[in-house]
Amino acid sequence: MRNQWVVTLAFLASAAVLALVAARVQPEGYEASIFSDQGEEMFPALTDASTVQAIEVVDYNAGQAVARPLKVELRKGRWLLSSHGDYPAEARDRLAQTAGALVGLNKDAVASDRWEDQAQYGVIDPLDQKNASLTGRGKRVTLLDARGAKLAEVILGGAAAGKPGFRYARLPGQKRIYLVKTDADPSARFEDWVEADLLKVDVSGITKLTVNSYVIDELNGTLGNLRRRVMVPNGENWDAAARAAAQTLAGLRVTGARAKPKLLADQLRTRQLALSLETVMSLRARGFFVLPTGQLLANAGEAVVETRDGFIYTLRFGEVASSSLDGDGAATSAAAVAKAGDDRFLFVTVSSRNPDTEAKAKALDAKFADWYYIIAGKDFASIQKAAPAGSVVPLASPGGGVRTMPPLPPEPQP
User: pTM for the whole thing?
Assistant: First the structure.
């Protein structure tokens, strides 16, 4: 009888242990753990949008299989795209909007606590090289204060179906995925952070458009197949192609920029290039050449825009903007370059035929001297449709030329 009691007590003890184990692993307990931080503030350190002095945005280009970083920061009272050679940025309003949208952001609901669900909610870190997925990547946003300390960092994912104003988000390095209410959607596109209108030319103010076409013989330093087409509003050449080109030039936007070497930029302001190996290599890498005569040319031709105010803009179109020359200096694959849309390097100079606007023309020329611009392939194609197909004529830029001193040195002999 005593043995029966021992067995019974042992059975009851085992049952109690099993009951405790079941209580630990039951779904109700698991759910309580998942929702433990639901409703909490996501960035307690971010209390004032005005303390944000820099923003980093990393987006992912699935077509090129590459992350695209962009950083804007306030330095010595100027907003600069530090990820793109300190190109001047128009960032104050856009940055304030993003910072304001993240101040007080709450973890409204927990959507998942599983690593495997990141692609589904679009919150894979764009910088995660261990994850092979080309889709399902989010946008990584980092806000920094004046000392470079992180005030907020989040991976913003896809919009929540059926819940306007809500999207998914994840903190870097954590697996938990939240549903948050925010309109924050910062851009990693260069053109969204800079002055939109490059030339500031009104289409109705264009009085003449000239497109020059030629072939450069780099070995001999000569030109061939020289052609020019001159188009004047309401003139016989002012056809649909001319009007489209004028519209494109009036609204021309840059999609990127590369800083010229300081020596080259400084000398361009005086229009006297003392050519060095650095300046020659910099020019040629972007498709620009200086002949022994001192003429600056481009391997994809040029367009000259003359305005009613007396300004003369000379736009020289260079090489396809290879991804290997990106602002961060990182080379990418040939496949990525091929998918870049044939964006082109652009070299801009400005002069004036009117003494009243000479000072302003010099100021514009000085501004353009610092940069090789990049324009969209579609804009280049629009301008090229107005290229000449007529007879060959002598070529000379009407005011946009740059002279050199001394002439271009000869190519080194093998």
Answer: 0.79
